[in-house]
């Protein structure tokens, strides 16, 4: 892996860091860092990994994650092919819990913010009216400096702390089990799976990349990710299937095989186990939601 899993974000002259990201693709390395991170995708699609959660992302995806929670926004393959028509765009804010001093958030008035920070340890996916307000604030924050920027950030955090328009991302009790020394091993595994999950996955080959026997690798993977390797692959395939179903260009059968499943019956079972509905039901439900949000409706 070119960059360490434990990602360092330095801002020697400012109390927090804010970046507008405009690149061909998002950082392809799975990583973690000791900062809180508020991130919104303005342009781009792909697969999002946060803790033990895997989900398709597209423009509008907004999350707030706590320190040392591993994450990755893996852009779709087309973004790595050098086509200038496909680019990514996002806004990210990083800060540590002591960015305003060691004891600032220990005061009684900060109780709700402390609760927010605790919830962020699992990652929060932001939605609804809160999403739209935070997005507006983030765009405004790009234009601010100094004390005004700090006030705007605190205003955003206060909005988050006083809202329930978010969903937890990682499982209850999830903790980061990774060490920087395991970076290269897990990077090889992730790269292999992300490059091959739509065709075929050879477990023996994956285990070999990790330098382990198959059985030992399966135990190692489950201990580190809180899920079996086969579940990990299935979640990737179902996530990609969701994207194809939302695009509504292929039949359910075509989506099945395009996503890496070998049989339609297995596809339907795996999809329903993970999403609580069949692929056909998912497509109809998404279409209804899209229609309701349409300006013409």
UniProtKB/TrEMBL annotation:
Protein's recorded name: AraC-like DNA-binding protein
HTH araC/xylS-type domain location: 187-285
Keyword Kinase: no
PROSITE patterns in the record: HTH_ARAC_FAMILY_1 (PS00041), HTH_ARAC_FAMILY_2 (PS01124)
Source organism of the structure: Arcicella rosea
Keyword line: DNA-binding, Transcription, Transcription regulation
Gene3D superfamilies documented for this protein: Homeodomain-like, Jelly Rolls
Alphabetical list of InterPro entries matching this protein: Cupin_2, Homeodomain-like_sf, HTH_AraC, HTH_AraC-typ_CS, RmlC-like_jellyroll, RmlC_Cupin_sf
């Amino acid at each position: 892996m070119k960059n360490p899993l434990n990602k360092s974000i330095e801002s020697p002259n400012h109390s927090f860091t804010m970046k507008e990201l405009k690149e061909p693709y998002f950082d392809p390395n799975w990583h973690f860092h000791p900062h809180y991170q508020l991130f919104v995708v303005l342009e781009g699609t792909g697969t999002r990994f946060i803790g033990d959660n895997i989900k398709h992302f597209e423009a509008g995806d907004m999350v707030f994650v706590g320190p040392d929670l591993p994450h990755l926004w893996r852009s779709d393959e087309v973004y790595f092919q050098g086509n200038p028509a496909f680019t990514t765009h996002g806004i990210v804010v990083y800060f540590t819990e002591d960015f305003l001093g060691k004891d600032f958030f220990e005061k009684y008035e900060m109780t709700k913010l402390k609760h927010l920070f605790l919830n962020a340890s699992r990652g929060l996916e932001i939605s609804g009216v809160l999403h739209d307000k935070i997005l507006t604030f983030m765009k405004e924050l790009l234009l601010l400096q100094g004390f005004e920027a700090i006030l705007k950030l605190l205003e955003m955090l206060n909005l988050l702390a006083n809202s329930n328009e978010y969903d937890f991302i990682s499982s209850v009790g999830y903790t980061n089990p990774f060490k920087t020394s395991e970076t290269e091993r897990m990077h090889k595994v992730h790269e292999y799976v992300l490059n091959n999950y739509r065709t075929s996955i050879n477990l023996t080959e994956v285990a070999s990349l990790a330098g382990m026997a198959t059985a030992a690798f399966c135990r190692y993977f489950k201990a580190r990710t809180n899920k079996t390797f086969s579940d990990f692959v299935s979640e990737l395939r179902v996530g990609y299937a969701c994207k194809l179903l939302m695009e509504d260009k292929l039949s359910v059968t075509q989506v099945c095989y395009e996503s890496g499943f070998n049989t339609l019956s297995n596809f339907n079972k795996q999809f329903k186990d993970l999403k609580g509905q069949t692929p056909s039901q998912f497509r109809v439900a998404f279409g209804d939601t899209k229609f309701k949000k349409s300006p013409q409706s």
